[in-house]
Amino acid sequence: MNDSAPDLRSDPPVGPSPSHRGSRLLANFVAAAIGVAILATGVAGVLLAPTPMPDFAMTVQSGKTMHLSNFRGKWLLVHFGDTRRPGAGPSAVASVAQVLDQMGPEAGGVRFLFISIDPRHDTPEVLGRYLARFDPAFIGATLPLPALTAVASEFGLTFDPGASPASLEDTMDREGGIRVVDPGGHLRPSLSPPLQKSDLERAMGLI
Q: Is 4 within the bounds of a domain?
């Protein structure tokens, strides 16, 4: 009987070769990098990573000045539009009113802000009458055109006040999404109108 230990150096190697291990490590690194990129930018350019929003001032339908920071602690739904344009604008606002009504008490943590892209026509009084048709708690706001252009850009929109009617191009959602700002003041992925209750609840982490 040979009691000597086997020579492990002569046994065939177990597991992948060093070159195979290197290839697998490279593949894992590439996969991880792709995953980080998707989390940061989303699919088809939709923003997924929460982005801090800068504060800005606006005039609301009461004639008073409010700031974006006044909505901290609440979920804020933001929609850009004007009171004279038919179609998607009123439909989006109406869908928000319907969803908040369906949510019951949970809607207490949500606010809706309508920012006009036609501040020459949409005075605070006009905004007040328009939004009262949907929900008296909805807030309408106007900004001077230079500030409006900058604020729209922060929400991922390209605004051209010189067009007739004013042009608003959504760079993240061709359908003109409803922007979501979380209670901490971060921009979240937009929601496509008409808004559905499940969409909002999912955005808020309720489901």
A: no
Q: Answer yes or no: is 163 within a domain.
A: yes
Task: Find how far residue 68's CA is from the centre of its chain.
Answer: 15
Q: What are 82's two structure tokens? A: 């004007």
Structure tokens at 169: 């191009």
CA distance 123 to 128: 9
Residues 96-138 have pLDDT tens digits of: 999 999 999 999 999 999 999 989 899 999 999 999 999 999 9
Positive/negative CA dihedral, 143, 145, 147, 150? positive
pTM: 0.73
- State both tokens at 43: 């699919």
Residue 8 lies in a domain: no
Closest to 182 measured CA to CA, from 174, 173, 191: 191
Number of domains in the chain: 2
What are the distances in angstroms from CA 195 to CA 63, 75, 91?
28, 15, 9
* Domain match, 66 and 33 both: no
